[in-house]
Amino acid sequence: MTKTWKICHHDLAKIAHLEKNLAIPAVVAQLLTARQLTDLEVARQFLNPKLSDLREPTDLPGVSQGVEVILRAIQEKKKVTIYGDYDADGMTSTAILYRCLELLGATVDYLIPNRLGEGYGLHRENLDQLAARGSDLVVTVDCGISDVDEVAYATKLGIEIIITDHHRVGPTIPEAAAVVHPALPGGGYPFDGLCGAGVAFKLAWALCQEVSGEKKVSPRMRNFLLEAVSLAMIGTVADVVPLLDENRALVKYGLSSILDQAPMGLQKLLIATKLDQKKGRLKTTDIGFGLAPLLNAAGRLGQAPLAVELLTTSNEARAEAITEYICQLNESRGTLERSVYREAHKQLQEKYNIEEAPAFVLSGKGWHSGVIGIVASRLVDKYGKPTFIVAQDKLGLKVGVGSGRAANGLNLYQALAACKDHLVSFGGHAAAAGFKIDDDKIEAFTQQFEEYLEELPGDQVAELTIDAEIAFGQLTHESIRQFDLLEPFGQGNKSPLFCAMGVELVGEPKTMGGGKRHFSAQFRQGNHTLRAIAFGRADWVEEMLKVGGTFDIAFRPTINEFRGQFNVEIRLEDWRKASHAAAVAG
User: Fold this and answer.
1) Residue-range definition of the domain harbouring residue 514
2) pLDDT tens per residue, range 405-419
């Protein structure tokens, strides 16, 4: 799939200014300018995020009201239920507030809706259930901001509601006892990028301050909050929110402290993924490809409450048993994902002209709704085009569940809003969104979605923003370790992406890994040869052999550790025949 390479322009004077005043390597200064971080104070804080950079929790809109309602409920011995979500962000959010309220002596439990049978958000059936079991106060985490009717229904049942959420605020805000949200209209909060766990952490922090009677909390509460940072970090990385501003502070501290300060269940997950054996600070990739998939596997297969129990239990034997079961669920999730991917990819190739299609909408009866988001993400990575996957009910008795991932900066939430007449419901973020749809509306939705894309201004060709052109000889252990000064990497601060021109393929590329799904090759530039890996891109083997000759490649450098040996390698992001005309200056 053709992509436009946008190579960042560099202002040498600004690079020299940052290098001198911040005492950083020139290559790091160059990367900062590529990210438009040229103000000295902004760049300094970006490079050195600290927990002390976090704004006071009561600055977050709705926190003070939420604290007041929760503490009154505790004082009056009312029953409180944390109502969460089934993804890693929702689970960690639930765990943070549940453990906080337990610490404060509340009568508290939690409820996570079943992804397969109920879906996202507040549901009347669950509210009926909570009323029947005596819940007086329900605190949502990572959901609720769009559930206007459900909040009104809860009020009629005599249940008080506090909403804590970070998803898009709609035209009508639910009439709850408190609404805690970083983007609340009129709230004036300067950073709206917190995830659900970040919002829950801020509320828990404020509760601990209020109970302690001052900003400095008691030692017991301080220990809890430091453990909670690890959970908030996982939610932040897993939910792919921008790793900027407060999120950088949460993630950097969480990564550095998780091995020492994680709650018991999280410790067992670290052991299961062998991350406990890593030397030094973990990286976001360890969370995104190690811990988070295990938690998400539980949610995808309808077992989210078990994951929350794991994150909150103090029983070591129980933690070990749940961890073993979640690892088994993750294996099952992988099998389901590969099956749906094969069918969806086959349908894509049969249904679309891949080069000309603006987007892909794929559907199948019996596809597991718990893995369609991953499949959509894999197809976006492969083809660089917005993709929706719809899991239809086998018998056609239930509405289909759709999940989408964005490409080229498309705002999926706005796209779904433009097509809402064909949907039963929808929600989500700019980059990832979901919906429910009747089978007979899929074709009309597809047509309207494509028409919406055609009306958007500008070219919708996939684009790679490349930090700089670099020679293989510049990729040393020292230079790559210097890039780590810009950690943590993630959404809004991707790891450095470089390009090298006119490199030779040494020998033939090969497939590798389980199922032979991954790509491996050796490239040479001058006297330097590097191994290249591309995960999930086995198809590149045949394509690259067909093109032949020399190549321009776009890649992320890394240091691979294997049996005590440390070698410079590259993770291939894109390639083309050498001197392709699509490379442009940014």
Assistant:
1) 4-46+464-585
2) 987 778 999 999 999
Per-residue tokens: 583: 């490379």
- 491 burial (CB, 10 Å; 0-12 / 13-18 / 19+) is middle
DSSP 2-35: --EEEEPP--HHHHHHHHHHHT--HHHHHHHHHT
Q: Which of 409, 534, 545, 413 is nearest to 464 (CA)?
A: 409
Question: The CATH number of the domain where 206 resides is what?
Answer: 3.90.1640.30
155 and 121 within one domain: yes
The region that residue 292 occupies, defined by phi over 0 for left and psi between -120 and 50 for alpha, beta otherwise, is alpha
In terms of domains, do 434 and 479 share one? no
* φ/ψ bin of 563: left (φ > 0), alpha (ψ from -120 to 50), beta (otherwise): left
Angle of helix 264-272 relative to helix 292-300, nearest 10 degrees, comes to 100
Query: What is the C-alpha separation between 16 and 24, in angstroms, rounded?
Result: 10
* Residue 216 DSSP symbol: S
Q: Tens of pLDDT along 224-243?
A: 999 999 999 999 999 989 99
Q: Sign of the CA dihedral 481, 482, 483, 487?
A: positive
Q: Distance (Å, rounded) from C-alpha 79 to C-alpha 461?
A: 53
Residue type at 81? T
Query: What is the DSSP-derived secondary structure letter of residue 105?
Result: T
Q: Is residue 342 in some structural domain?
A: no
Closest Cα to residue 197, out of 169, 163, 229? 229
- Asked if residue 336 is part of any domain, the answer here is no
Query: Both tokens of residue 364?
Result: 């199948």
Phi/psi at 504 (nearest 5 deg)? -100, 145
Task: Give the per-residue pLDDT at 581.
Answer: 42
Domain count, the chain: 3
15 phi/psi in degrees, rounded to 5? -60, -45
pLDDT of residue 585: 38
Cα-flanking dihedrals φ and ψ of residue 516, to 5°?
50, 45
**Cα within 13 Å of Cα(329), Cβ side:** 22
The reported pLDDT for the residue numbered 382 is: 86
523, 532 contact by CB (below 8 A) = yes
DSSP state of 55: P
Q: What is the mean pLDDT of residues 567-585?
A: 76
484: in domain: yes
Q: Are residues 177 and 299 in the same domain?
A: yes
